[in-house]
Write a structure and sequence with these properties.
Layout: H1 3-29, H2 34-72, E1 79-83, E2 86-91, E3 94-97, H3 99-105, E4 115-117, E5 120-124, E6 131-133
Helix pairs in contact: 1-2
C-alpha cells in the first residue's frame, strides 16, 4: 500500500468512525447515564483531534510530494565541460557558452566558432571580449636580447 492510498484509507475509516460516533452520541443524549454521555463526548473529541492530525499529515504529504517532484526535475543550469585547455558551459548539446558572462549574469552567451588568435586556437565572447584558448599551437620564439656593448 502506498503512502497516498494509506492516507486515503485512513481518511475513509476516520470518516465512517465519525459518522458512527455521531449516531451513538445522538442516541446517548436520550440516555440518563451521565458517565456514558461524558465518555462518548470525550471519544468524539478524540476522534475530531485525530481528524485534525490526519489533515495535517495529508498537507505535509502534499508538500513533500511537491518537494520530491521539484528535486527530481532535471536541472536548468548548464554543465561545465572541458574542451582542450578550457572549460566551457554547455546546456545539453548546445554550447559552448562564456563562463564569465554566465557566472556574472546567469545568461548563456554563445561563443564565436574557433579561430586562431595570438595565443593559439580559441573562441571569443562578443559580450565580454575575452578569448578562451583551447590549445596553444603558437611556438614561442626565443630571441637573444641585443647588447651592442658586450
Amino acid at each position: 500500500m502506498t503512502v497516498s492510498s494509506a492516507a486515503t484509507v485512513a481518511s475513509q475509516v476516520l470518516s465512517s468512525t465519525l459518522t458512527a460516533l455521531k449516531t451513538v452520541r445522538e442516541q446517548a443524549q436520550l440516555s440518563k447515564d451521565a458517565e456514558l454521555k461524558n465518555r462518548i463526548s470525550a471519544l468524539y473529541d478524540n476522534v475530531l483531534e485525530l481528524k485534525e492530525a490526519l489533515m495535517m499529515v495529508n498537507d505535509e504529504n502534499k508538500q513533500l510530494r511537491l518537494r520530491v517532484a521539484e528535486l527530481e526535475k532535471p536541472s536548468d543550469s548548464p554543465e561545465i565541460r572541458q574542451v582542450g585547455l578550457t572549460q566551457y558551459y554547455f546546456k545539453g548539446e548546445k554550447g559552448p557558452f562564456c563562463q564569465p558572462c554566465y557566472d556574472r549574469t546567469n545568461k548563456l552567451v554563445p561563443l564565436m566558432p574557433p579561430n586562431y588568435y595570438a595565443g593559439g586556437l580559441g573562441r571569443k565572447c562578443e559580450v565580454c571580449n575575452k578569448v578562451f584558448f583551447e590549445n596553444n599551437d603558437v611556438e614561442q620564439i626565443n630571441v637573444k636580447p641585443f647588447r651592442p656593448w658586450s
